[in-house]
Amino acid sequence: MHVIGVMSGTSLDGIDVAEITFSATKNWHFELGVCKTYGYSQFWEDRLRSAPSLSSKELEELNKAYTVYLASVINEFIIENHITEIDAVCSHGHTILHQPHNGFTLQIGNLPELAILLQKKVVCDFRVADVAHGGQGAPLVPIGDQLLFANYNYCINFGGFANISFEKTGKMIAYDICPVNVVLNAYALKLGKAYDAEGSFAKTGKIHEALLKALNELSFYKMLPPKSLGIEWVNAVVFPLIESYKLSPQDVLRTFTAHIAQCVGKSLETPSNGSDIKVLITGGGVYNTFLVNEIKKYTTASIILPNSKLIEYKEALIFGLLGVLKLKGKVNVLASVTGAKRDHSSGKIFESKSSI
Questions:
Q1: pLDDT above 70 covers what percent of the chain?
Q2: Which of 14, 51, 240, 294 allows an S-S link to 39, with CB 3.0 to 4.6 Å?
Q3: pLDDT category of residue 248 using cuts at 50, 70 and 90
Q4: What are the residues facing 30 on neighbouring strands?
Q5: Bridge-based pairing state of the strands 348-350 and 171-179
């Protein structure tokens, strides 16, 4: 199947769009074609960043406007790359609210209008059904890790949050480890940059031991999986905690980098037989070389970076796979990962000729 996978992460890096061809015999295979990230304008970045505080009516209006904007981005990608014969556009949308404990999650850009504007079949809105089944609605990527990257012991993606997946006693286990770029980018912005390139700011800071200890002792880290994080938790818990120490942005970046590294290290189990474990790491945070080197201090595992296309577009790739699985009526969300009542095939299918 020839599809387009679309992903927008909470770190607001932009909209990732990937052309993908999937084939399956005994095992699943993929080929990543043209890929591109469309950065958000300051207008859209500000609008999305402030969206969690909007009223229901304002969110509805934002959802409509974002759907039109998302369609324009995808259409631009299709036209400029002369892509034809697309079986489906498989889109995650952009998460605004994620409150599975309240039975609610909202990803905008998943309205039926998207299929009309694209004149393509669309598969989208993958998280809502899982929350309705009692699950966390996240993480959804592990089904892709199981089907496409089974030769690694662990897969970790470093985006707005770090999430991990692995197989244990025959079941896939996955959860959000901790915030990453949603915090690091916020403090890089205070220093005039959109992100801390290669961890250059963090390198100049000092670890504040009291803050590091307080971060490591947050109750979320004591919870057993399945568990997931949302920007609301960061805004309500993490930022106020950090700000209470009144540190320089450099010291915050250094301290939070240590926090991420320690959280990741604790998530990687060393086999009792001493065998080498392989960890595939992807996502924009991988380009923070200082962070990656700090992580290596807390694990004996082999940390493996794939090619840049897979680093940057693995999530778009896997949401493409989720769409294909949905179209084929196959399971694309695992109960062992999200805590849902059962494995299920999640997402909505909108036909290009649907009436609105």
A1: 98
A2: 14
A3: very high
A4: 22
A5: unpaired
